[in-house]
Write a structure and sequence with these properties.
InterPro entries: Acyl_CoA_acyltransferase (IPR016181), GH (IPR017853), Glyco_hydro_3_C_sf (IPR036881), Glyco_hydro_3_N (IPR001764), Glyco_hydro_3_N_sf (IPR036962), NagZ_Beta-hexosaminidase (IPR050226)
CATH superfamily of the largest domain: Glycoside hydrolase, family 3, N-terminal domain
CATH architecture of the largest domain: Alpha-Beta Barrel
Structural class: alpha/beta
Keywords: Glycoprotein, Glycosidase, Hydrolase
Number of strands: 32
Shape: globular
Protein name: Glycoside hydrolase
Family: Belongs to the glycosyl hydrolase 3 family.
Largest sheet: 13 strands, mixed
Radius of gyration: 32 Å
Helix content: 25-40%
GO molecular function: hydrolase activity, hydrolyzing O-glycosyl compounds
CATH topology of the largest domain: TIM Barrel
Number of helices: 31
Number of domains: 4
CATH class of the largest domain: Alpha Beta
Strand content: 15-25%
Length: 934
């Protein structure tokens, strides 16, 4: 590939790169031919190629040696599906650790743990010579209950999927492995409409996808994703009719590259998929994939099909359907990718089991921690857990398990014989990586043995099938005091749902007649089986059914630890299915201890914001909330900030800042924010209650305010997202605030000052009324301006003016004077780019608003113009002088903040744009004094 220099067709053809796989655990003549004669540059290893870790390391070394001896200028790209949970291509009980699925990791509530797990996984596969992981999975389960991806995906919340996907991606990259996001544009909401040869279809519009499914892909691209696998699904909506996404330039070139800005390597879905090969044929499909913009074409199994694909591409080049330039673009991208993860020394000398043996103890401990933290008790109405407290020693426990497929990551799969009976997979199963062998009994048999050891033999165990509740089940249920039913994807295997509901009804009837029958339902795959069904009183989720997961389940059921997992996505957010509200320990802010944690918390929140949307947090540090400088020359401000934190790691889960202005008897809550991975767990509620309690204890307090003009980060409830704004208003209303009469505040901007022109007639109008405008710096002539602000604005704005007047070099105040008596009728603050005020108003340092010339952002801040017949003209005059000063300071952009609802329309007439909108709430402090703030 990388040696293509000449203009002849044959050398170019010989130097093309491919992504291929083959069947067999050793080097075959076919794979040797592909490497030596066709310059195969990338190989995807699957379970069919891999035995032990030691044999895998030797196989990879052999492949790289063949490439080296064949004159390849750079090593092979060796990729692997190692998603954890049920999808691990490489399984070795002695050296490779089992970790939870993506959804299981998200259930821990810890992006830090997601990073650790991904990093450990990458170190293990790197030890055997693999240099690329086909992950992370970035699909959003828009229709979670019925999607075949299941627990391979993080969940149904796009921001949460982003956060955990990026954490995993960084874990891979920091171990020296390149990453490949999948499955673009989404396998999270597929419709299965026809036969097994028909493609599943995405019917959402691009606009709908942009709001949900595309969010994690967009964010991962922004954070440095190396490669992207483009799926083979169809797309059908008003603007797009695509049969196969990976063969469409609308998807690969237009949507992925141009709209989302992806510059890395694109990999097609396997062209040997039934629907792809049946609809188009591999030869034509290969040409279409390259034309669409794919850099690597994936052909998984058949040597004959791989030869057909190469012949098709050769024909496409000979017929000028594909240009040399197009090929070279892809070659350069693949070269860049390989340079990140491999070199000949590394490729030819995989560290192998020596390194794996060193890593294994710590990775085993991490595996135990991850599984223990992921096990989720969603409901336990009857307080049946732990079983060690509710079952007498002589009572029998019944385990009922379904006949399901073992997971590839399971030892049970490894033990299957070659002549095991095969089943024909349905449409859904073609889209999930699982063995087709119908026998999950091995895993569940070991689960039964573990339960029996805990119960000293008092265990009954049998399986159930689509035949429903049989006499054998009825007899065992009558004998047992407690029943555990295992379900795995009961929403798609409806017999499990019916069986469980039948047993539940039997247990209720028997218990009502005086016979104790405790029922525990355990979902070992999708947590959606009975998530919303409250008739199942005790419901536990494990997120996979590997041996490691089942071991963690047994320990949780018998109280060896208290499971703390929570259901990811909207299930975590649904208060209907949550436990009672949790109270978190809220501590007072300590700068030395907490400022680094606050910075990390701000960055975590920033990563979940939509690109292009304004964010008052961008660039904020702890200094933004520390207003001591504002008290040096003005009224004192009492600061009280609070945190919910992990005392072991010093990580902040939540932060709240409050201020008290004694002279105005005003208490202000300026910010409450929570780690995105821990929202809807009552952290914000605990911070809010503590903040209100702290403020209403202040002597003389009369008013509470939500939202602050200083620091100018959240002047109120953000309203740029109406749905989120409405949700927040409901939340604050439920927590005691009067939301009936909010004060509307706006942040306005002129994005390109160089092209801004004074609206026609404006200058003459201002000059006609004869107001006098001047600009002052420092405190020498500031007394009248401060008196004006004190009389007509709140204490926060006064503090802002005091800060501005303390910075003579980069801030000034424009005054407007009455032509009648010289009294002040208006003031506004003007700031140069990068002034000291940008510490407290981070939007003034936002890189998103900076122009390409690096001129920076000028500020026109906190206009104070009392109501009068000519207030609009005064405001326009102040704004016009501010714009002129910003231009003189060579600002590319200006920001005008603290604009009230009445002032907004006046300024929009001057060609300002709305950057953000807020609703400031206030109410009497006595409103909270009678509330339960415990």
């Amino acid at each position: 590939m990388e040696g293509a220099e000449g203009d002849e067709l044959d050398p170019l053809w010989q130097d093309l790169d491919w992504a291929m796989g083959w069947e067999g655990t050793e080097v075959t003549p076919q794979i040797r031919t592909l490497i030596e004669d066709h310059h195969l540059g990338a190989i995807l290893l699957t379970t069919k190629n891999l035995k032990t870790a030691q044999e895998t390391a030797k196989l990879v070394q052999d492949l790289q040696t063949i490439a080296h001896q064949a004159g390849h200028p750079v090593p092979l790209l060796i990729a692997l599906d190692q998603e954890n949970g049920g999808v691990n291509s490489l399984f070795d009980e002695d050296y490779i650790c089992q970790f939870p699925s993506a959804m299981g990791v998200a259930a821990t509530g810890s992006p830090e743990l997601a990073y650790e797990v991904a990093n450990a996984t990458a170190k293990e596969v790197s030890a055997v010579g693999v240099n690329m992981i086909m992950g992370p999975v970035l699909d959003v389960l828009t229709n979670a209950r019925y999607q075949p991806l299941g627990v391979r995906a993080t969940g149904d919340d796009p921001q949460e999927v982003s956060q955990y996907g990026i954490a995993a991606m960084n874990g891979y990259k920091d171990a020296g492995i390149t990453t490949c996001g999948k499955h673009f544009p989404s396998y999270g909401n597929l419709d299965f409409l026809g036969s097994s040869l028909d493609m599943p279809i995405i019917t959402e519009t691009i606009e709908q996808l942009s709001l949900s499914a595309l969010v994690p892909f967009r964010n991962a691209i922004r954070d440095g994703l190396d490669a992207m696998m483009v799926g083979g699904c169809a797309m059908a909506n008003a603007s797009m009719n695509v049969m196969h996404a990976c063969l469409s330039d609308q998807v690969v070139d237009d949507l992925l590259r141009h709209e989302l800005g992806f510059n890395g390597v694109t990999i097609s879905e396997c062209l040997e998929m039934d629907a792809l090969s049946h609809d188009i044929g591999v030869r034509g499909g290969t040409v279409m994939a390259v034309e669409a913009g794919c850099d690597l074409v994936l052909l998984c199994r058949s040597f004959a099909v791989q030869q057909e694909a190469m012949a098709g591409l050769k024909l496409g080049i000979e017929n000028d359907m594909i240009s040399r330039e197009r090929i070279m673009v892809s070659l350069r991208r693949v070269l860049t990718l390989k340079s990140k993860c491999t070199n000949w020394h590394k490729a030819l000398n995989p560290p192998g089991i020596n390194q794996l043996a060193t890593l294994h103890p710590s990775h085993l401990a991490l595996s135990t921690k991850a599984y223990d933290n992921s096990i989720t008790v969603m409901r336990d109405k009857g307080h049946l857990l732990p079983l060690s407290n509710t079952l007498y020693p002589d009572e029998e426990l019944l385990l009922l398990t379904p006949l399901v497929k073992p997971l590839p990551a399971s030892a049970a799969t490894k033990q299957m014989t070659e002549n095991a009976k095969k089943e024909v997979p349905n449409e859904h199963d073609k889209w999930i990586h699982r063995s087709s062998i119908m026998s999950g009994e091995g895993v569940f048999r070991e689960l039964g043995r573990s339960l029996a050891r805990q119960r000293h033999g008092k265990l009954l165990h049998t399986s159930y099938t689509a035949n429903g509740v049989r006499p054998v089940h009825e007899n065992l249920i009558n004998r047992a005091a407690a029943i555990i039913i295992i379900t795995a994807d009961a929403n798609r295997n409806l017999y499990q749902n019916g069986f469980t509901k039948h047993v539940s009804m039997m247990c209720s009837m028997l218990s009502a007649s005086g016979k104790k029958k405790s029922l525990i339902v355990v979902s070992v795959s999708s947590p959606y089986d009975f998530a919303m069904d409250k008739s199942i009183g005790t419901y536990v989720c494990t997120f996979d059914f590997t041996e490691t997961a089942m071991s963690a389940l047994v320990r949780a059921l018998f109280g060896e630890y208290v499971p703390q997992g929570t259901l990811p996505g909207t299930l975590r957010k649904s208060r209907k299915v949550q436990k009672s509200r949790q109270h978190w320990l809220v501590e007072s802010w300590n700068h030395d201890r907490d400022h680094r944690g606050l910075l990390a918390l701000i960055k975590a929140i920033e990563k979940t914001s939509q690109p292009g949307k304004p964010s008052g947090l961008s660039g904020a540090t702890a200094a933004a909330f520390e207003l001591s400088a504002a008290t040096e020359s003005g009224d004192p401000i009492e600061e009280m900030h609070y945190v919910v934190r992990n005392s072991s790691t010093q990580a902040l889960f939540g932060f709240c800042s409050t201020y008290y202005y004694p002279s105005s008897h005003l208490g202000v809550i300026s910010t409450i924010f929570v780690d995105p991975s821990k929202r809807n767990l009552s952290i914000g509620h605990s911070l809010h209650q503590r903040a209100v309690r702290g403020l209403i204890c202040r002597p003389g307090i009369k008013t509470l305010q939500l939202g602050a003009s200083l620091p100018t980060i959240f002047p109120g409830i953000p309203m740029s997202d109406l749905t989120e704004g409405a949700r927040l208003k409901r939340w604050f209303a439920a927590n005691g605030w009067d939301i009936s009469s909010p004060r509307l505040l706006y942040t306005l901007t002129i994005r390109n000052l160089a092209h801004w022109q004074v609206p026609e007639g404006l200058l003459q109008t201002i000059q006609r009324v004869s107001f006098a405008f001047d600009l002052i710096h420092g405190r020498e002539n500031a007394a009248t301006a401060l008196e004006h602000v004190s009389a007509h604005a709140g204490p926060e704005v006064l503090a802002l003016y005091n800060l501005a007047l303390s910075d003579e070099k980069s801030c000034g105040v424009v005054r407007a004077k009455s032509p009648v008596d010289g009294s002040l009728v208006g003031t506004v603050i003007i700031t140069r780019p990068y002034s000291s005020l940008s510490t407290y108003i981070p939007i003034l340092q936002s890189s998103e608003s900076n122009g390409s010339d690096g001129g920076g952002i000028g500020g026109i801040l906190a206009p104070v113009v009392p109501n009068s017949p000519q207030a609009a003209i005064v405001l326009q005059g102040l704004a016009l002088l501010g714009i002129k000063q910003n231009k003189a300071h060579r600002s590319h952009t200006c920001v005008l903040n603290c604009v009230s609802g009445e002032e907004r329309d006046v300024l929009l007439g001057m060609n300002f744009d709305v950057l953000d909108a807020f609703e400031e709430l206030s109410c009497k402090a006595e409103r909270f004094s009678d509330m339960n703030l415990g």
